[in-house]
Amino acid sequence: MKVTKLVSTCDLKDCPTIYATDRGTLLVQGETPADHGLQLPAHETLVEIPMELIQKAIRDNLI
User: Fold this and answer.
1) Helices within 1-63 (DSSP H only)
2) Sign, Cα dihedral of 29, 7, 12, 52
């Protein structure tokens, strides 16, 4: 899979980030919340990202 960084809230590796793949999908990097109370299948997970990241991606016409 080829991954391309689209937008981040900082230039470090440990910040919320959105990536595009050559599969036509997005990868999202963020915090893994533990207090959500949801029942998720074992093969799925949640990540929490700031709304600012989505707004920046839309503003910059990246998604």
Assistant:
1) 51-59
2) negative
| φ, ψ for residue 26, nearest 5 deg | -115, 145
Q: pLDDT per position in the chain (63 positions), as tens?
A: 999 999 998 877 789 999 999 999 999 999 999 899 999 999 999 999 999 999 999 999 998
Angle, vertex CA 47, rays to CA 13 and CA 34, nearest 5: 115
Pairing type for strands 26-29 and 17-21 reads: antiparallel
Specify burial of residue 48 (Cβ count, 10 A radius: 0-12, 13-18, 19+).
Answer: exposed
